Protein 1
Amino acid sequence: MSSMALPLHEGSTVNLACFEVKGQIYALEVATVREIVRIQEITPLPNAPELIEGVIDLRGAVIPVIDLAKVLRRGTAEDGMHARIVVLEIDGLVLGLWVDAATDVLSLEGHRLEDVPDLATQAGYDAVRHVVRREGEAPVMVLSLETLVESVYRSALPPQAGQGEPR
Amino acid sequence: MIESPEAHPTELEPLARGWRQVVDLAYPVPIALAVTVFATLLFEASLAEFGAMFVGYAAPILVGCALLRRRASEWALPAIPAQVHRTLLVAGLSSIVLVPSALSVVGAAGWFAPALLRSLALFAVVNAVASAQVCFYHARIRLGRYRRSAGPEEVSLTDAFGGSRTASRLRLAVALPAVAGMLVVFDVAGHLSLQRAANERIAFAEAAISALGGAEGTFAERVASVLPAEAFRPGRVVAFPLDAETLGGDATAHVPDPFLTAVDAALASGRTDGAIRLRDGSGVGRFETGPEGRSFAVFVGTAETANAWTGGLWLVFAASVLVFAFGMRVGGDVERSIAHVRAHADRLAAGDLRGEGISVMDDDLGALEASLVRAAESFRTTLGAARSAAEGVESTLAELGGALGGIVESSNVQAAQVDEIHAFVTSISNRVGEAQGSASALTTAIDESSNSVLELGAAGDELNETASVLTSKVDAVSDSLEQMVRSVKEVGATTDRLAEASEETSSSMEEMASAMRAVDTAAETTANLSRDVVEKAELGQAKVVQTIAGMEAIREATDAAESVIRGLGARTNEIGGILDVIDDVADETNLLALNAAIIAAQAGEQGKAFSVVADEIKELADRVLASTKEIGGLIRAVQEESENAIGAIEAGSASVMGGVDLSAEAGKTLEEITDASREAGTRISEIVTSVREQTKAASHVVALMEKVRESADQIGEASNEQNRGNEIVYRSALTMREVAQQVRRTTEDQAAGFGRIRENVTGVRGAVEQISGSLGDQSAVCEQVASVLDSVADGSRSNEEAARRVRDAMTTLVDQAQELRGNVERFRC
């Protein structure tokens, strides 16, 4: 999604909403985040794609929720006291991300975002687009929203269609 | 029958009397013959058996005669001549002994055994019957004895016969042999009948075999011809019970095995024929051996022959009953006769001599009664004569009394004359006596002088004796003194020993006293100790009570602490709740701040300020969260600690409870210790008291022993002094003894001189005594005369006395004659 490209040039500022999944800090561009809410009861959807846990009622709007840990293949999300749902809005699509905790909103200069090594991209692991190193703290991995959405869609496709397309 | 000698005095020649007796005794012989012949016919007896029966009957009769002869004098019977008596006795006894012996010898020689048995049995039967007869006859002889010798005053009938016991004895004498004979006959008759039945069966068999057409010859040959030859086998007896049915059937069907065994045994012993009687009495039989050694036997069982001999049994039983009834009747007759005679004799005994109204019985006892009547009559005539004689005696006695009076007078005169002569002789004698008195006086004078000499000698002797006595006394004194000295020395030694013993005793007592003092001290110490123990124990008890109270307080305190801590826990829980709320609020705030920061970032440059505020709010919330987290940790720590505290308090509380229990136990134990110690104290006090008493007693003993020792010392001193005194006395006594012995020797010399004087005086005295002796002779002659006269006087006096006695006797005689007359008058004639 080229429209979603981050302003990485000198002098620009990038705002990242950070959250924790399985002990690691991930981040998304604040512009895509509509709000962060407490975890609430998730109603499972029949015949839903594998990554969609179910739907929640957010002030009258029904939105699907996906488990980020599953998407990242790191197990399943924790239903802890600090578990949150990060509500995203991408081109009119509203989506909830189930994370272990919402930690921070970081405001950084554009050059702090570093690209991940090619090897990882080449290998097909392109869910992380950038990494932000921080002094004395764990690095923040900036997720690729397009890859994320594509994974969700792919999981929602019929099995033969999904298999027919080589990657 | 025996006749009274008084009735027929001329017929009583001794020999004739003996033969009469034999005839008298032998009257049962015809009866014996009859019985024997009857038995012979009944049992089909042989001549030998007949002889045995007859001898068996005769023998007791003969012995009875002999016994009568032996006791003839006692029973006042006429004597049998000695020759006859010997013959009877030898014949009777030898027949009793020899006949059974002879029969036994014959039986041993192989005579037919049942025949021997029969002979013996028949002998026994007739022997018993004859014995009964003899007994009965002897009883009659006893009656005859009374008739011959009785007088009412000499023998009473009761004494002679013992009342009705005699009748009972008679019955017994008849009945017992009868019963014995009956038993023997029962047995013998059974066996004989059985034997006869067997013979009948054999005869029947013979007849039957003859009827079957057997060949000629002996019975055995005929049997062999009739029975098939197969029936006979070597070594086997063909036996058959004999009756008409089984004769043609199985020959050995009903023959008992014991019989066959007995026949086999007889054949094995070499006999060819004979009789067999089973020992259990179940039957009899015969066996014979025919041609070619074919043996056979016939057997007759008891059951078949029972009917055959019951006839004989009944016969014997009836005979026994008859004999018994006869005996009973004889006994009754005799008893009645005796009662009659006794009544008659009682009348005689009462003095009733009148013969009228007396019926005389017509038997032996009747003769006795007749004799009694005759005796009474003769006594009556004798009494009349006695009465007249008594009267004559009386008158004669009166005359005699007058004559006796004259005799007495003349004897009195004679006595007076004799007395005068006596006085004269006495005067002569007196004069001789005077002469003798003068001689005596002379003798006396000499005697006196002699006596003086003798006295002198005696005095010397006495002196001598006295000296001896003195010597012996002195000896005795010195002996006694010696003894005394020894005793005193012994006393000294004993006293020394006593002193030693008392010293020992007092030292022992001292030791004992010191030991007692030690005991006393120890007891005192013990008492103090026990008092201490009691005090300590009481103190301990008080401490225990305090401890228990303290423990109670601790428990209460811990309970309070526990409740406080529990309250604290509740509060901390509450705080936790509040913290959760704060946490929630902080979390919410954090979330809101995050959302605010996101919105601010989306707002771009315009939202920068807001973004700062949101960051600060978020930081605040983060701090709040951190603080609440810390507080939560603290609260958890507090809660854990309070839980621990509660556990510790509970454990403490349990320990306190255990402590309380232990303290209570300790208190109880202490109480027991106190009690025991108190009792020990009491005991110790008692011990102290008794020990003190003992000590007191011991010191008393010591004091007493001191006194004893002092006394012993005193005694010792005294005995020493006495000892010294005694020594002096003893020496004096020795001196005295020597002096006394000198005196004695002197007196002995004197005594010898006196002896010589005495001899001379004695010679003088002998001469005087000769004179006196001749005078004494004269005097003796005079005294003899006087004594002769005295005897004459005595004779006349005794004459007088005799006359007096004759007179007295006559008076008595007259009285007795009068009495006799009175007695004679008493009889009713």
Protein 2
Amino acid sequence: MRKPTLALLLAALLPASLAGQARYSLAVGAMGGTKLLTDQIFEDIKVTQVLAPTVTLGANFPVSKRERAGFEVSFANWKSRVVETGEPTIEGPAYRTLSVTFGVDGPLFSRLTYHGGAGLLKYFPDKQGIFLTGGPLLLVLTGGVDYHFPLRAPFGLFARARYDYHRFSTDELQSAGFARTQDVHRVGLGLGIEYQRP
Amino acid sequence: MNRPTLFAAVGATAIIGAIACSDLLPPSRVVSYDWRLIVPFDSGGQSYADTLSFHWPRSSIPVKIWVEDSFNLPDRIREGIAIWKPIFIYGEWDAVLVSDSTKADVIVRGIQPPPIGFARGSRVHAMARSCFGATDVDTGATRFQLLIPIHSYVYPSLPNAPDILQCMQIVAAHELGHSLGILEESPDSLDLMFSNPTVTLPSANDTAAAINAYHYPANMIPVWR
């Protein structure tokens, strides 16, 4: 992928004084999301997402006195459900998502920092149902906050809330005649550890 | 938060809010032919008709199909499964070939269909140029049962015809369409479920019929004999 390579290249080109203050983070958590689609064939049909465990790796670097820029790579393991009125709910395809986002972090209040960014999100599904021909690569927008608990330098803990947004569709849905795209909003909570190079 | 940051945050939220108003729009699935089985019956001297619908229950998916190993029929049925399966985007129907006919939900044979040996139901035919197919829908004693296994027949009437391979592919897919729940023929010659089929893939009508069959309440239940 070109964008991560570019970010790493930019990071490498940062002045040594800034690169020296690089902050790395690892977070685990859970994420939930809104429905993937709705349909109606006699009855209403909904494909929903089940709460997914997530792992996120991040790195950022100071770009001003207050802001830091960097990237986050987030992996989540999802299951879906097909809910049809009057029918038993069944398991839909399982899938994993990998997002790579680039963004900015900055202070809000006290130990609270904000995060905003954009990047790409890839679905890696079981090839069945709406994912029979594979998963899409989508643009994702993300935002959130981190609350930092300093430990003994250079380590710290943080609690994280993240929101992201993308527009969902698959080749399978398009060939089945679905038009437009589905807004998908996802919210995640996590706990993590960070390390800042002195 | 400093002022530029605040503006950036508000701006990003506004952009997300502005574009976040879209839902996938499902296709219209207008069915031009009735997939349900119309079975006439007499009661007290009066003539009536039952309109019977069927789809395999979720617990029976994937449907188990035993195929006689003649005329490369297993390959033809596999191709038929590959044609029908993508239509069911919610996983409503799938099928696998099994080697034990006693555990099969559907039995496909490469012979001419024997004389009808059941009292109620229907035999639906497909007559292509150089091959022939039939599927027996035995509705059992109560009229609201579908006796399992379903028996289908696909065989070449002109084995040396130049188009025999395509003919067998078409008829195998057609009979598979019956065994999955399309219990009547289409009146449109451009549909795979037409009684003299010539097209190789399910049309929009066939697709709509199959999908509707799986979301319309079934009043015929599968009963294993």
